[in-house]
């Protein structure tokens, strides 16, 4: 009769920067391993995703560890959120959805003080947009990824830019950090799909909203220009100016569209609301305010140019023509 080895399997499981040594019998099952990991990390078994070298297929609860490719010295990475974190995410998503609903309602309401050289029609709003949002279901918390993608798609500044430049994108989805670690964004076939890196490298959260939105503006520019040439840089800078100008004007209140740049600016009536009771505003005070705005805009654009140079190194979209992107 053949003897059964009783030597244990000793390997390490990492989760969000923490390492957990695990020692189990070779005939222990995946179910037993997941129960052990749940005790160590508080990540429910249903939320656990194990990545390791030599993995050939999806793990089943009844599989023996040795048969599933586990061996002594193996390094395993576990992805997954705790039950408590999932509850917090749902609360945050609910708040984001509430805010998005309010912003959409405000965007649809006619503004009495708004003067614009262009008013997007309802047909344009239906055509020039993201037609589908697709998070990656095999990554942790796809519902959180969907909420972030939906927030980007409904961002009033992004909606304005897409309608202003007649951009249409088939699918807005995400890039998995472990699948394409060198990329932050990718435009497929001039707008057939845009893929964005939403998550941190360690899968322990999401990148900041403004970082992801800046990458989105970059990839939207690839709807027109394939290579990172001067044409691309000029249009991309314009999109960033329009997004910044739209948000600045929204924060200040009433706004109008400047035909030269496509950016929203305050109405002239609002620009002269610096009067003091019993007196009048001075030219020096007005110049000072305009000078401050000019310096702030120059500083913002300088920062965006530096960030854009870095972003070009992490963009997977390039080609002699937009229709050759892949």
From TrEMBL:
SUPFAM superfamilies: Ubiquitin-like (SSF54236)
Ubiquitin-like domain residues: 9-79
Name by which UniProt lists this protein: WLM domain-containing protein
Ranges of Basic and acidic residues composition bias in the record: 287-297
UniProt source species: Phlebiopsis gigantea (strain 11061_1 CR5-6)
Region (Disordered): 275-326
Pfam families with a match to the protein in the record: ubiquitin, WLM
GO molecular function term, any single one: proteasome binding
InterPro entries to which the protein is assigned, alphabetical: Ubiquitin-like_dom, Ubiquitin-like_domsf, WLM_dom
Top-rank lineage group of the source organism: Eukaryota
Residue span(s) of domain WLM: 121-305
Cited PROSITE patterns: UBIQUITIN_2 (PS50053), WLM (PS51397)
